[in-house]
Design brief:
Low-confidence stretches: 1-7
Helix content: 40-55%
Strand order of the largest sheet: 3-2-1-4-6-5-7
Structural class: alpha/beta
Oligomer: single chain
Distance between the termini: 42 Å
Mean pLDDT: 88
Shape: globular
Number of helices: 15
Strand content: 5-15%
Length: 443
């Protein structure tokens, strides 16, 4: 299986152009418009993008009805269930690999229909030895060993497994993933009933009680899943999130496998499924449980990778994204999402610098206020929903204020990553997140 064809030509040039346009948009109102008129661009965007945000956040179904529809489906006979391969790319995961395999072995699925594949990507800790022991205990566990310098990062590891698997569906997990024993059956039923080519599970945080940082990340995951459901219901786009993604194998192979020239294989694959006309769904319950990072340096490292991968995929696929291959609703959704997630932080940062330089009033505060206000609404709605995984933080005024303050980190991360991408050449490496082996929260 060859890696995905997208190489990402001239990413530095595209990033530099994006940076110039955002810089001009952030500075221009201070020089070309006077007084209150300098707020007109932001007010206009606030109405357009604010309307998109409100529709997305409020256009959401109750997860109870969603799940009851999936659960009420008549399960097929054992021989009629599709075959599933679970794929986990692991590097230096000695703290979680035992629990991972033991948990996967408890999944309720017809005998002979489920296989577990762990790709050891050159681990230098006890992961290889632990996998050898686990392979003796669990006969349906397959271990693939790669050299540490084999290349391609996580995508390269997954592509290695893709050459060997034969399942109808692939469930891609991170090494810290924790699953309910009935998750796989419910997920497969949901995918088949909805006609999806891929389904992303909601991500739930297991170490929510560790500190304020893990608490706000749990709120962020709930908000993200709620927004994704709203985007889908409005005819927009759902994105894969890496951990907890179910993929139809034949569709993945038609799309060229996993792209080894990107730092976020999940976001890249989302766009390749989209441009191939393959539909992606999202399931609120049951979630895939995972660890949130617990320190600011770990968060900074993780979010830089997410920001870089997010920008890369827009720069790589933009000709298709604006073409007639996508529906008008999908193109509108992507345009609004790009402006809010990537352009607004850069424009706002330039706006702040220009404000300090010219001693004028900030020009984009109306748009920022609208964006943060709707984010608070999304937090509130997301955290009020029923969760089969760890209990979500209650949307109290204190938690909402913490969540809003936490979101401001994107207004630093994205401008910094944009400048770095525009100036420095990129060397693709597997920048993995470290896992402690946090125990699941009992519910």
């Amino acid at each position: 299986m060859a890696a995905a064809a997208v190489i990402g030509d001239n990413r530095r040039g595209k990033t530099a152009l994006f940076l110039i346009v955002c810089g001009w948009a952030g500075a221009a109102p201070h020089f070309w418009l006077e007084g209150v008129r300098s707020l007109f661009p932001a007010i206009t965007l606030a109405f357009v993008l604010g309307g998109y945000c409100l529709r997305t956040v409020l256009n959401n179904r109750d997860n109870a009805s969603e799940n009851s529809n999936a659960i009420a489906l008549e399960p097929p006979a054992d021989e009629a269930w599709p075959t599933v391969d679970v794929l986990v790319a692991a590097r230096d995961e000695e703290t979680v690999v035992n629990r991972l395999v033991e948990r996967l072995a408890t999944l309720r699925y017809p005998q002979g229909k489920l296989a577990i594949w762990i790709i050891d990507d050159g681990s230098q800790d006890r992961t290889p030895a632990l996998l050898d022991e686990l392979r003796q205990r669990f006969p349906h566990l397959h271990v693939i060993n790669r050299l540490r310098g084999a290349g391609g990062g996580k995508s390269g590891a997954l592509n290695t497994a893709l050459q060997q698997v034969q399942g109808d569906w692939l469930l891609i997990l991170d090494a810290d993933a924790q699953l309910q024993d009935d998750l796989l059956k419910r997920l497969v039923l949901f995918a088949q009933h909805g006609g999806w080519s891929a389904v992303q599970l909601r991500k739930a945080v297991v170490n929510i009680q560790n500190n304020l940082l893990t608490r706000v990340q749990a709120m962020e995951m709930a908000m993200d899943a709620l927004i994704q459901q709203g985007r889908l219901l409005a005819g927009g786009v759902v994105e894969l999130r890496g951990n907890g993604q179910l993929l139809r194998r034949c569709t993945l192979e038609e799309c060229g496998g996993f792209n080894e020239n990107t730092v976020t294989d999940d976001l890249d694959l989302s766009f390749r499924f989209l441009t191939a006309g393959a539909l992606i769904g999202i399931l609120w319950d049951p979630p895939v449980q995972e660890e949130a990072v617990e320190t600011l340096p770990a968060l900074w490292k993780q979010r830089q990778r997410w920001a870089e991968g997010g920008l890369q995929r827009f720069f790589d696929y933009w000709p298709v994204l604006i073409s007639g291959k996508l529906t008008l609703a999908q193109r509108s959704d992507l345009a609004c999402f790009f402006l809010l997630q990537y352009a607004l932080p850069v424009v706002s940062f330039v706006d702040l610098l220009t404000t300090l330089f010219t001693r004028t009033i900030p020009a984009y505060w109306p748009l920022s206020i609208v964006a943060f206000s709707v984010s608070a609404l999304a937090y509130w709605r997301g955290c009020r929903r029923i969760s089969e995984g760890p209990a979500l933080p209650p949307p109290t005024p204190w938690n909402l204020l913490l969540g809003i303050a936490y979101l401001t980190h994107w207004f630093v991360v994205i401008p910094w990553v944009t400048v770095r991408m525009a100036v420095l050449p990129k060397s693709l490496v597997w920048a993995k997140t470290s896992h402690r082996g946090q125990q699941p929260v009992k519910v």
